[in-house]
Write a structure and sequence with these properties.
By secondary structure, this protein is of the alpha+beta class. It has one domain (3-223): Sandwich (Jelly Rolls). The protein is 25% helix and 35% strand. The protein has four helices and 15 strands. It has a seven-stranded antiparallel β-sheet with strand order 1-11-7-15-5-4-2. Strands 3, 6, 9, 10, 12 and 13 form a six-stranded antiparallel β-sheet that branches. A two-stranded antiparallel ribbon has the order 8-14. Strand 9 (161-166) and strand 10 (173-177) form a beta hairpin. The two termini are 33 Å apart.
Length: 228
């Protein structure tokens, strides 16, 4: 394992998220943004305001996924499955995750979760995303990936990724994660373990996006489990 991924694992354990600077090039970001208008690539479109999710919209890719999206999902997953299993063990859970993403998808299918979950999100001026969790079924992989495809300051202003950690008998902690174009962040999907004075305990994590003040912001979301 590279030193960069070792640092990602350390940051995930320490704070529940980890930045990966420059995961995608500017040209790769442009390529992904251009996919948004090709409706044949997507299985559904969600306008957030219609459901009380916030403002803005997103689209879920259909199978087969575009090659760049499929490659990211397949290649990043094995880097995180060890962390997922360590978290499960620390949390006292019996659940363990396979080392290959194809095997996770097979487990999802057996559980009735057959729809792919990678998505493109599009925000305009005044748009935002309420705090939420991307669960989609009983089988949930505890980590997910988001990649910013637009350049802060040039393409948009505002629109920061926000993470909240709800700690037992304590006030919630808030993290604002700074990202540049092509930067990725790995973060907890639902729960994560935290070391306390009497051992590990689980905390609840939600994520959202603050209001975009100007311009347009695109993001690629990679959720590793599939949906019902």
């Amino acid at each position: 394992m590279s030193a960069a991924w070792e640092l990602v694992h350390q940051e995930l354990d320490a704070q529940g998220y980890a930045r990966i600077p420059g995961l995608l090039s500017a040209s790769a970001c442009d390529e992904l943004v251009a996919l948004y208008d090709d409706t044949a690539l997507f299985r559904s479109r969600v306008v957030m305001g219609r459901h009380g999710f916030g403002r803005g919209e997103y689209q879920y890719f259909a199978d087969p996924l575009p090659s760049r999206v499929a490659d990211l999902r397949r290649d990043v997953y094995p880097k995180l499955s060890g962390v997922a299993n360590a978290w499960a063990e620390r949390s006292g859970l019996e659940r363990r995750f396979p080392g290959a993403h194809a095997d996770l998808r097979a487990e999802c299918a057996a559980a009735g979760q057959t729809r792919p979950t990678p998505l493109l999100l599009k925000y305009g001026s005044g748009d935002y995303n309420c705090l939420h969790q991307d669960l989609y079924g009983d089988l949930v992989f505890p980590l997910q990936l988001a990649i910013l495809l637009s350049q802060p300051g040039d393409d948009f202003e505002g629109g920061e990724l926000v993470l909240t950690t709800q700690r037992p008998r304590m006030q919630s902690r808030v993290d604002v994660v700074p990202l540049g174009r092509g930067d990725a962040v790995v973060f907890a999907t639902h729960h994560r373990p935290v070391q306390g004075t009497r051992g590990s305990y689980r905390v609840n994590v939600r994520h959202g996006v603050s209001p975009v003040r100007r311009g347009q912001r695109y993001t690629l979301g990679i959720i590793f489990h599939d949906a019902r």
